[in-house]
Specification:
Elements lengths: L9 H4 L6 E3 L2 E3 L2 E5 L2 H7 L6 H11 L2 E6 L2 E6 L2 H10 L4 E3 L1 H5 L1 H4 L8 H11 L5 H5 L2 H12 L8 E2 H18 L4 H21 L14 H27 L6 H7 L14 H14 L2 H16 L1 H15 L17 H13 L6 E5 L3 E3 L2 E3 L4 E4 L1 H4 L19 H5 L19 H18 E5 L7 E3 L3 E3 L4 E6 L1
Parallel strand pairs: 3-4, 5-11
Antiparallel strand pairs: 1-2, 4-5, 6-8, 7-15, 8-11, 9-10, 12-15, 13-14
Helix pairs in contact: 2-3, 9-10, 9-20, 10-15, 11-12, 12-14, 15-17, 16-17
The structure holds protoporphyrin IX containing FE.
The site of protoporphyrin IX containing FE has 24 residues, from helix 14, helix 15 and helix 20.
């Protein structure tokens, strides 16, 4: 079972701690000295910073402060203040260091770039993610999911996390690079697997860029895999430029995109920029969705009433048994409960489980004033489990996502896709993919957990299950 205890509502339980003033600055309550070693050993157990954040919320309330070396760190667990950071005062922030470090793989892609350059890239890439454009991918998503559901045998268990990775990886590869690149997709898959094994650790280390060149076996493997991935991506870009045909995929869109507001000679992307964007979209676009789906199947296996209700919705719309048809794009608005299930799953297990920013100038945040260079962290995982916005927060209840209930909560009480100008560009893509895959697989199967397994979270770049999640498919 999931081991994290629910964080109690901060405002109810946290003792009132005084604001701590130093010169012109007013710091939130928190650890007065540098994050002491004992806290590190207690809460920074490899791979689980969530414990530290929970401790801060429970002890100090919705905004807390500590120092790590010379850096001020503020943990924010309040929807209005998160809005301040992501929307209202967004120009005063850049991404925090871990995300900056992702440049070792992603270069200057949408996730890692900043300022005017980011805004320009976002403008150029936006049409590739417009609702009308991504609608063309629905059929292919369903086709892939249908092929996967045909492979399972009743009673033969498999690792759901691995299956969902395979499915979403194939989908993002096909939507980025059209259809006829099966061989490349396999190669890309292999290189990405090598890279990801190390990448999760590298981005957590300070100054990763500076020792990336060292002749250490793991780093050599990383560099070689990255170089091979680059060469595949560059070759695809060159081939596509040569034929100059719109294949309807994301790469064609990115190649054709023009920055209407830019100067004529600078309005399209260079090969290097294309490489960075392609690899960014590729990596951002599959592990997140795979984790969301894996957790959804897990939650459904623990909540049979919700699974049944979802299946009834799907059967009523698409038919049952021999006469059933596959879901399609136009069915999505009718798959409302299925979408609510997916939403509730991303509340409890948000694939992007925490986010961070660094201020580039002194910041007023609520009653606090914080110096330039302060790091601000906030966690979907923790806020989404707040009693204040989600009574009985550990209970899986898709009804929390009826339009009425959604409207009754502050916007940033739920933010699996972030917010503001850097909100996930793939959000509509992810909702469409999630709902269509849930519907396609549920038409045929219901999944039961193989008994005796431990389930826990592993907060890496995304919120993965810590152990394989072995499931038994049962034919419906
Ligand atoms: C359930 C699935 C997904 C989740 C939970 C998710 C979550 C997020 C979050 C929280 C951010 C904002 C990060 C920040 O501001 O620090 C983000 C940004 C981004 N996501 Fe997603 N994402 C998902 C799926 C996708 C997909 C399918 C794609 C592409 C096909 C994608 C591409 C991107 C890109 C390119 C950015 C950077 C946007 C920018 O800064 O302009 N994501 N995502």
């Amino acid at each position: 079972m999931v081991s994290q205890a629910p964080p109690a509502s901060a405002s109810e339980t946290a003792p009132q701690r005084p604001i701590h003033s130093v010169g012109e600055f007013r710091f939130p309550p928190g650890l007065r000295r540098n994050l002491p070693a004992y806290l590190f050993t207690r809460f920074f157990r490899p791979g689980n910073p969530i414990l530290l954040f929970e401790h801060l919320v429970q002890t100090y309330g919705p905004v807390s402060h500590y120092k790590l070396g010379a850096s001020h760190i503020v943990f924010v667990n309040d929807p209005e203040l998160i809005r301040e950071i992501l929307v209202t005062q967004a120009p005063a922030f850049i991404k925090e260091r871990t995300q900056q470090r992702m440049k070792i793989l992603l270069g200057e892609g949408l996730i890692t770039s900043e300022g005017d350059f980011h805004m320009r890239q976002r403008r150029i890439a936006a049409p590739a993610f417009h609702r009308q454009r991504i609608q063309g991918y629905a059929e292919m998503m369903v086709e892939r999911a249908a092929a996967m559901r045909d492979r399972w045998d009743p009673g033969e268990n498999f690792d759901m996390a691995a299956a969902m990775m395979e499915l979403t990886l194939a989908i993002v590869a096909r939507t980025l690079f059209a259809t006829d690149v099966t061989q490349e997709i396999r190669q890309i898959n292999d290189e990405v697997n090598v890279i990801m094994r190390l990448y999760n650790y590298l981005v957590a280390l300070p100054r990763a860029e500076s020792y990336l060149h060292l002749p250490v076996p793991g780093l050599i493997r990383f560099r070689k895999a990255r170089a091979r991935l680059d060469s595949i991506v560059y070759r695809m870009i060159a081939e596509r430029r040569a034929v100059n045909v719109d294949r309807g995929d994301l790469l064609s869109m990115l190649l054709a995109s023009r920055d209407e507001e830019g100067s004529a000679e600078q309005s399209s992307m260079s090969d290097r920029q294309l490489r960075d964007e392609v690899i960014t979209i590729f990596l951002a676009g599959y592990e997140t969705v795979a984790n969301a789906l894996t957790w959804t199947w897990y939650l459904l296996s623990q909540n049979p009433a919700a699974a049944e209700r979802m299946e009834q919705e799907i059967d009523a719309l698409l038919g049952k048994g021999e006469s059933a048809r596959l879901p399609a794009l136009q069915d999505i608005p009718q798959l409302r409960y299925t979408e609510m299930v997916f939403a509730e799953s991303m509340r409890l297990y948000p694939p992007a489980w925490a986010m961070g920013r660094q201020s580039t100038q002194a910041i007023e945040l609520g009653p606090y004033r914080l110096p330039a260079g302060t790091y601000f962290f906030f966690s979907q995982y923790i806020l989404h489990r707040s009693e204040e916005y989600y009574p009985d927060p550990l209970r899986f209840d898709p009804e929390r996502f009826t339009p009425e209930q959604k409207a009754a909560r502050p916007r940033f009480a739920y933010f699996p896709f972030g917010g503001g100008s850097r909100q996930c560009i793939g959000e509509a893509f992810a909702w469409m993919e999630g709902v269509l895959i849930l519907a396609t697989l549920s038409q045929r199967w219901r999944f039961r957990m193989v008994p005796g397994q431990t389930v826990d979270v592993q907060p890496k770049i995304t919120l993965r299950p810590k152990y394989p999640m072995r499931m038994l498919p049962e034919r419906r």
